[in-house]
Write a sequence for this structure.
């Protein structure tokens, strides 16, 4: 996948983390390598599973979508993860 993406990762304890990146594989490797030292979220449990990926047009769109998703409650995030992917226009 190229360009900007918004993603949701689940940690070992089942908590959900939302982020943006241009390289999902690199970012997941960084989360795994820095667990315990990096983002406060991953100090509580190592990243366990990629749950959701959504393409974004550019960095600004990705960051706005990330903010929208972060404001959602857990149930809404799980519903987003469970929903079939929307086709691009």
């Amino acid at each position: 996948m190229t360009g900007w993406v918004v993603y949701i990762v689940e940690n070992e304890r089942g908590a959900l983390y939302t982020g943006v990146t241009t390289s999902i594989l690199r970012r997941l490797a960084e989360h795994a390598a820095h667990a315990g030292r990096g983002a406060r979220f991953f100090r509580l449990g190592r990243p366990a599973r990629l749950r959701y990926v959504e393409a974004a047009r550019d960095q600004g769109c990705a960051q706005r979508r990330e903010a929208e998703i972060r404001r959602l409650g857990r149930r809404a995030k799980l519903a987003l993860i469970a929903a079939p992917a929307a086709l691009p226009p």
Q: What stands out?
A: The first strand starts at residue 4 and ends at 11.
